[in-house]
Design a protein that fits this description.
Length: about 220
C-alpha cells in the first residue's frame, strides 16, 4: 500500500531517503529552504516545496498531520532540527523520524517524543569498525545494541563439507543461520541437510558476542 511521506531537508540523508522511497513507489513531499536543492529533486519527488520549516505556520499550512511519516533530515542546524521536531509532535504527526548529529541531540529528540531517532554517521562508524575488528565477518548490521545480523565467510576446514545439522551452529554457538551463499550463486534458504562448502558465506542472526566468539574461536 502507498504511504505518504514528507522529508524536511535534502542533504545526503534526506535526498537518499527521497530517492529510495520513490523507487519503492511511495508518495513523497520534499521541503527545503534552499531553492537549488528543490530544483534538484523537483522531478524526482512527488511534490517539492521551498519553505523554511522552522516557521510554525508553514508546517500547519502544509497539513503535516495528514502524512503517514515525516522525516526531519536537518543535521547541522541542531536548533532548527529540535524546533521542527517539537512542532511536528505538537501538531500530532503520527510517526516522526529525525536524524541526530550527536548523542545530546539524540537524547533531546527522544525526550520530545520523536518515534525514531537515527544516527547515520555513528551507526556506519560502528558497523565498519566491527567488520574491521573481526577476521571473517563481512557485514555486521546491528538490529538492537546486542543483536546483529552478520555475513560470515567460512574459512575453517573443519566447518566445511558438513551439513548444518552436523555443525549444530544454533545449539553450540547460539547463532541462527538464515541463509547460505555458495560463491556467486544466489543465497539459499538453509535446511538441516544444506552442506557448507569451502568459501561459503553464512548469513547469521545472533548476539554480538556469539558472532565474535564464532569468528574468533571457531572460524579461523
Ligand atoms: P547530510 O549529512 O544529510 O548531507 P546535513 O546533516 O549536513 O546533511 P544540513 O546540510 O544542515 O544537514 O541540512 C540538510 C538540508 O536541510 C539542507 O539542504 C538545508 O537547506 C535544509 N534545511 C536546513 N534547515 C532548514 C529549515 N529550517 N527548513 C527547511 N530546510 C532546511
Amino acid at each position: 500500500m502507498k504511504k505518504t511521506f514528507a522529508i524536511i531537508g535534502l542533504g545526503r540523508f534526506g535526498g537518499s531517503m527521497c530517492e529510495t522511497l520513490i523507487d519503492a513507489d511511495q508518495e513523497v513531499l520534499v521541503i527545503d529552504s534552499d531553492e537549488e536543492r528543490i530544483n534538484e529533486y523537483m522531478n524526482i519527488a512527488t511534490h517539492a516545496m521551498i519553505a523554511n520549516a522552522s516557521e510554525e505556520n508553514t508546517l500547519k499550512s502544509i497539513g503535516m498531520r495528514n502524512f503517514d511519516c515525516v522525516v526531519v533530515a536537518i543535521g547541522e542546524d541542531v536548533q532548527a532540527s529540535i524546533m521542527v521536531s517539537l512542532m511536528l509532535v505538537d501538531l500530532g504527526v503520527k510517526y516522526i523520524v529525525a536524524k541526530a548529529k550527536n548523542k545530546n541531540h539524540a537524547r533531546i529528540l527522544e525526550k520530545i517524543g520523536v518515534q525514531k531517532v537515527v544516527h547515520p554517521e555513528r551507526d556506519m562508524g560502528v558497523r565498519t569498525a566491527k567488520e574491521l575488528a573481526t577476521n571473517n565477518v563481512h557485514e555486521f548490521i546491528e538490529i538492537t545494541p546486542d543483536l546483529s545480523f552478520a555475513q560470515i565467510h567460512i574459512v575453517n576446514k573443519k566447518l566445511v563439507n558438513r551439513t548444518l545439522d552436523e555443525l549444530q551452529i544454533r545449539q553450540k554457538y547460539r547463532l541462527n543461520v538464515v541463509g547460505v551463499k555458495h560463491g556467486d550463486a544466489e543465497f539459499e534458504w538453509p535446511e538441516g541437510t544444506t552442506i557448507v562448502r569451502p568459501d561459503d558465506f553464512l548469513y547469521v542472526a545472533g548476539r554480538n558476542n556469539d558472532i565474535e566468539r564464532f569468528d574468533d574461536e571457531v572460524n579461523k
